[in-house]
Each structure stands twice: as C-alpha cells, then as structure tokens.
Specification:
The complex is a heterodimer.
Chain A lengths: L12 H31 L7 H22 L7 H22 L13 H30 L5 H69 L2 H26 L7 E3 H6 L8 E5 L6 E3 H22 L4 E8 L3 E8 L9 H7 L1 H14 L3 E6 L5 E8 L5
Parallel strand pairs in A: 2-4
Antiparallel strand pairs in A: 1-3, 4-5, 5-7, 6-7
Chain B lengths: L26 E5 L3 H13 L3 E6 L2 H11 L3 E4 L8 H11 L4 E6 L4 H10 L3 E4 L4 H12 L7 H16 L14 H11 L4 H8 L3 H29 L3 H4 L2
Parallel strand pairs in B: 1-2, 1-3, 3-4, 4-5
Helix pairs in contact in B: 2-3, 3-4, 4-6, 6-7, 7-9, 8-9
The chains are: A alpha+beta, B alpha/beta.
C-alpha cells in the first residue's frame, strides 16, 4: 500500500489522536478474542491432533497480542512493516490449524482472533486496507478448510463487509477531527487578530490624539497636521466602536441600529458626537436603514444652515417597542416668529421632507428650537416600522 | 455590606480656577502604557500647577505605587497591561474611597467605559480632548464633580433601561431607578448640552444639575457594589472582603 493512500501516515496530530483511540479500543478487542480462542482450544483439547503445537501457537498469539498492543500505541511505530507482520502472523496461525486440529477442520485455532488484524489495517489504511486484509484472511481461511458450511460463508461475508466499513469510518473520523482542529485554530487566530487589532488601534488612536493636541498648541502648519490627525482619529474611533458593537449581532432580518448610528461619527462635517446604549438595538432592517438616512438628512441640513464648523449630537434610546432618536446642533436656533423666514430660506422644505419620511415609518417627529439653544429634532419610531 | 455610603460626600468647593495661588495643590497620578502620552499629559498638568506624584505604565505598577503616592486624582487609560483599567479603578476606590478616577481613553470602547464608571470612576474623557478640556475636567473631578461626555450619558441611560427591563428578581428590590428629573437631565447631557445650558432650559441652578448627574452615577456604583458584595457572600468570600 503506497503512502498516498494513507493520509493518516502524514504527521497530523488530529489523525494520530483518532487512530490512537481506535487502536486502544482494538487492543481490548484483541484480548477478548484471544481469551475466546484460548478457551475454545482448552474446551476442544481432546480432539486436537497435536496439543503441544496448539499450546505453542496460542502462546505465540498471546505474545504477539501483547507486542502489537505496545507497538500500535505510538504513531511513529504504526508503519507498513508492523501491519504486514501482523497480517502474516494471523495467516500463519490460520495455516497451522489443519496440522494441529486434523483434516476435518470445522474451526481454525485462532478463530475470531484474526479479525483484529483486519480492523488494524482498516484503521490505518482506511477502507482499502480493510478490504485487502479481509480478503487475505478470508482466502487463507477458505484454503485450509475441507468443506465450506453456511456458517463459514456468513463469517467471511461479515468480515469482508466489516473491514471496509470500519476503514471508511476511520477515515471519516480522522477527517472530522482534522476539520474540527482547523476550525478551532482559525477561531483562535481570529480572536488573536481581534486582540492585536485592538492594541494596534488603541496605539494609533493615542498617537493621532497626541498629534492633534500638540499640533493645535504649536499653531501654523502643525495646526493643519493636527487637524488632519483629528479627522482620522474620529474616523478610526467610529470604526473601532462600530466593530465592537457588531460582535453581538442582530437576529436575521434585523440590523443593530446602535452600530449604524455609531458609524455616523466618522463624518467630519458637521462634527458628530453619538450617544447610544451599550447593548445592541435590533431593528427591522429596512427601518434601520431609513432611520439612518433620515439622521443623515438632518446632519446634512445642519451643515447647510449652521456651517461646516457646526457640531451636532445624535442620541439613540431603546424604548422597548420603539426607538427615540434625537439630532441636535449648536447653531443659533430659530426664534418662534422666524419660522416663516426659515420657510422662505428653504429650511422648512427639508423639514417637511424629514417629517414625511418619519411618518412613513409610522413614527412622529418634533422640531424644537430656541435662540441660543440650537435646533433639535426628536423622532419616535416603532422598531417594526409602519404596522 | 459596610455601613459607609458609596457616594462620597463632596468636598467643600475650593474657590477659583487654575492658577489661583491659594488653591491647595492637587496630587495627580497618570497611568498610561504609552510613554510619550504619559509624559505629555504629566508635563501639561505640571505646567498648569498640578503636582504629578506618580506615573505608571501597567495596572500592576499603578496599584503598587498608588498607596505611597496618595493621589487625589488618578488619570487612567483603560487599555493598559493587566490588570486592566476597570480592575485598577475598582481596586483603588476600594483602598481609598476618597480618590477620584478620571478615565482618559483613546478608543472609548463602550462596555469598558461603562464598567469603569460602575467600578467607581467619576469622569470620562476621550484622548482627543484639548489640553484645556483635560485640565478643566481634572479640576472638576478633583472637586467631586462628575465629568460626563454625551456618549457616557447615553451608555448610562441604556444601562438604567437594561436594569429596569431585566426580569424582576424577588429578593432584589434595590434595582436602581432614575427619577423623572434625573432622566430628563441625563438625556440633555447625552444630547451634548452643557450643564449651563441645561440649567437655563430647566430653570434650575447649575449646582442642582450637577447633583442630578452625580446621583445617576452614584446609584449605579452603589448597585454595582451591592451586587459584588452579594456575590462574595454567596461564594463565601465575605470574610476577605470585610473591611
């Protein structure tokens, strides 16, 4: 048998572990069938032609059983010479039977003991090994018999089936063990990558924050560098926080609104600060996307009407069946009487569109504004959308 | 459970801002694993007239130097070599309930920030805050005020909601709840309003707004400690914890 048919021969700890377990089980089986052969030999001691030879063969089988139990225990000893020797010993034991028991042989001296070598081949060389060993043992068994009974045929039939089946299962188990090992390794690698990413991100964020701070203090060109570092710091922090919350995930068909809203911090105009609960806020997928789109529209409006230096704050609250979202800016605000003016500026047009979109989700929208207090949108939206 | 209330009595307000000569020296400890950052912050604080009594780069160093350094305020990064910032906060506050912990975090990982606040930190700032912002926050924390960012307020609001939504445990009547006024104030903080703006909008004094905000944290910290002590008693560890 070539090594290519024997993937278990490669140095794969997972396969070795499976093989070792199976060989340990086989060792127990070998002892059981050995005791069975010795018992039957003793029971039929009167009918033996050469009892002395029988004792010698049974003793040899016992010694060989002890030897292979030790030999199969270590992966590096499980090689072709051992398996071939194992098979030859079994064939010799079968071949010696007619001499010991006389010509009208009804059962060989080793009996069921020979199945152990078939299973040993099956474990190591898969179904092909099981088939070859079963054939060899069956041919030897048939050759020494003077007549073949129904029972002999049944035993051989079962042996020819059992060898390849055990071999197939052995292969399957080894593949599964390898797959499991691979999955565990990649999960561990992913966890380690995530840990490293946290460390790296934290370090990069620290440096960006430092550059931003020092740059602002130094002024001039350094201030420009500081400003750029600040933009990147905001974007990276938004990304880190988004990834962090995405781990928990949302059920199928739903999105985590907290994660989506956190992503808005990556914007540079207006500068957005986002406040969300620590837990995921699962919301129907389409609703989540529309809510984020509405918030984006509000933020866009802030940039248009307050200026690119404007700051804005987004608050998301989970109210059970509903979510509350608020978008506030630090602009000059609108006095009550100036709403007409605002309408003339086109500001109300955007407002009506925002109201319409929120109403489309089955929610309500409120706009509050006062001089010096900025402008604030508050939305309450059902998580399932319009019912 | 000890008989001392977890909320520390606020110290008498010291008059004036930074630079006033009669102000008592504030002892500060800076804990950060990034040397450049650690030294930068320490230098900034010293130039502003504060006394940096110790610095540390790991949780172990921080806890070892803490008793002798006796800082009033610890400026603490959360991402430090073990024990992490949350454990360091809990340990320091247990050793000296009068110490103030100001979390200064680069990435602001939400659960960590919330855990640190529950463990006893009373301030939180992201590292991109300017030098002036850091100094102002530190002075406020030293006075016993809480320094909230909108993000932290959102987390705290969410935590109260999570606690009240959790299935009621029969022998747990002490689930912390916010009063309506506290919720209102906290929501405005989460919307990015300053205490001054909130005071104007709600017709309250600045001090009252601060007290409401402080209460929201105190209740969470108390709840956290009750939970820890209960856990310790259940696990038969109360002998070790009694102090």
């Amino acid at each position: 048998m070539s090594p290519s048919v024997s993937p278990s021969g490669t140095a794969d700890p997972a396969s070795w572990a499976v093989e070792s377990s199976m060989y340990r089980a086989l060792a127990v089986l070998r002892v059981v069938v050995l005791l069975n052969a010795i018992g039957l030999g003793w029971y039929r001691r009167e009918s033996l032609d050469h009892p002395g030879a029988a004792v010698a063969v049974l003793a040899g089988m016992a010694v060989w059983t002890a030897f292979v139990t030790w030999a199969y225990a270590a992966p590096q000893r499980r090689r072709a010479p051992l398996l071939v020797a194992d098979l030859l010993v079994a064939l010799v034991a079968i071949a010696a039977s007619p001499y010991i028991k006389g010509d009208d042989l009804r059962a060989t001296l080793p009996g069921f003991w020979v199945m152990a070598v078939v299973l040993a081949w099956a474990i190591h060389w898969r179904w092909q090994g099981g088939l070859v060993a079963a054939t060899a043992v069956s041919v030897a068994d048939l050759a020494v018999r003077s007549e073949i009974t129904q029972t002999n045929y049944s035993n051989i039939f079962l042996l020819m089936l059992g060898g390849p089946i055990v071999g197939f299962l052995s292969g399957l188990l080894q593949e599964m063990a390898r797959d499991r090992d691979r999955a565990e390794r990649s999960a561990a690698a992913a966890a380690e990558r995530a840990r490293l990413a946290r460390v790296v991100h934290d370090g990069v964020l620290q440096v960006l924050a430092l550059v931003q701070r020092r740059g602002a203090e130094l002024g001039g060109e350094a201030a420009e560098l500081g400003r750029l570092a600040g933009e990147q710091e905001v974007a990276l922090r938004a990304l880190v926080q988004t990834q962090e919350t995405s781990g928990a995930g949302a059920p199928a068909g739903q999105r985590d609104l907290a994660m989506l809203v956190t992503g808005l911090q990556a914007r540079t105009t207006p500068k957005v600060e986002v406040a969300v609960p620590g837990n995921p806020v699962p919301v129907a997928g389409a609703v989540a996307e529309e809510v984020v789109a509405v918030v984006r529209a509000c933020l866009h409006n802030v940039t248009d009407h307050v200026g690119s230096d404007a700051r804005a704050w987004v608050l998301l609250e989970d109210l059970g069946d509903q979510v509350a979202v608020s978008v506030r800016d630090d602009g000059p605000g609108i006095a009550g009487g100036r709403l007409d003016e605002a309408a003339a500026e086109g500001r109300l047009g955007v407002s009506e569109s925002i109201r319409g979109r929120v109403a489309g989700l089955g929610g309500t929208a409120t706009l509050t504004s006062a001089p010096g207090q900025g402008t604030e949108w508050e939305f309450t939206i059902p998580k399932k959308g319009r019912s | 459970m000890t008989s001392t209330p977890p909320g520390r009595s606020p110290r008498p307000r010291r008059g004036g801002g930074p630079g006033e000569p009669e102000r008592r020296e504030i002892r500060v400890m800076v804990v950060d694993d990034h040397p450049m950052w650690r030294e930068g912050v320490a230098r900034d604080l010293e130039e502003s007239g504060l006394r940096v009594v110790a610095t540390a780069g790991t949780g172990t160093e921080a806890l070892a130097r803490f008793p002798a350094a006796r800082p009033d305020v610890v400026v603490l990064d959360l991402q430090i070599p073990a024990p992490n910032g949350v454990e360091v906060t809990a340990s320091m506050v247990r050793d000296n309930p009068a110490v103030r912990v100001l979390i200064l975090s680069a990435s602001g990982e939400q659960q960590d920030v919330l855990d640190a606040v529950k463990a006893g930190a009373t301030g939180y700032l992201v590292k991109s805050a300017s030098r002036a912002e850091l100094l102002a926050a530190l002075l406020r924390v030293a006075e016993g005020d809480t320094v909230f960012t909108p993000g932290l307020a959102g987390l705290v609001l969410g935590e109260y909601r999570r606690l009240s939504d959790a299935p009621a445990v029969p022998d747990e009547p002490d689930t912390p709840r916010l009063t309506e006024r506290e919720t209102e104030v906290l929501r405005l903080v989460a919307k990015g309003m300053s205490y001054k703006q909130i005071a104007e909008r709600l017709f309250l004094s600045h001090r009252t707004v601060q007290n409401h905000v402080q209460n929201t944290l105190r209740k969470l910290q108390l709840h956290n400690r009750v939970q820890l002590v209960r856990y310790a008693i259940e696990q038969g560890l109360d002998d070790d914890l009694e102090r």
